């Protein structure tokens, strides 16, 4: 099982990057964002997902752990395959995808090529349900202490849910949200600042 590839970018094509690791070229299907981070001849690390099904053996690569987490989350939704997941992640960032799910913004999802209203609704429904089940585990800083936040009940609760969409655990989320001004900042900025802390 591959976790990541660390090598030289040998080729870049539409939706594909070839990473040379010790003389072996690994072709990774990927997103527009990841491709924009790569330069031919330079070293790069891609976090990978190996998709195996009957006669299919495909490798997917992503520039960040957040993008990989979002990809795995999307293909876990019934009716969403790897190609649809790549299309969505080529049209939006992981944090905006999480925000779209938490705020039930169908339009943001249907902006991706080949993603219709029904699939967008299914993604929102299934992933919000998943988050609702996990929500009781969240402890988000509120004033002097930590208290569980209901899904969508407050900005900190929505931010926690969006970060959970990206695959972060409740302890990581609680730590990342500490010290962020929930009252003054919009939800998108709260998520962005929390993510910045987590990738340091």
Question: In short, what is this structure?
Answer:
With 200 residues, the protein is an alpha+beta fold.
Task: List strands and helices in order, with pairings.
Elements: E1 4-13, E2 16-21, E3 24-29, H1 32-37, E4 43-53, E5 56-62, H2 65-75, H3 82-91, H4 94-102, H5 106-110, H6 117-134, E6 140-142, E7 145-147, H7 155-165, H8 170-177, H9 187-198
Antiparallel strand pairs: 1-2, 1-4, 2-3, 4-5, 6-7
Helix pairs in contact: 2-3, 4-7, 7-8, 7-9, 8-9
Structure description:
The protein is of the alpha+beta class. Helix content is 45%, strand content 23%. It has nine helices and seven strands, in the order βββαββαααααββααα. The chain has helices spanning 32-37, 65-75, 82-91, 94-102, 106-110, 117-134, 155-165, 170-177, 187-198, and strands at 4-13, 16-21, 24-29, 43-53, 56-62, 140-142, 145-147. The protein has a five-stranded antiparallel β-sheet, covered by helices on one side. α8 (170-177) crosses α9. It starts with a strand and ends with a helix. The model is unreliable at 141-152 (pLDDT under 50).
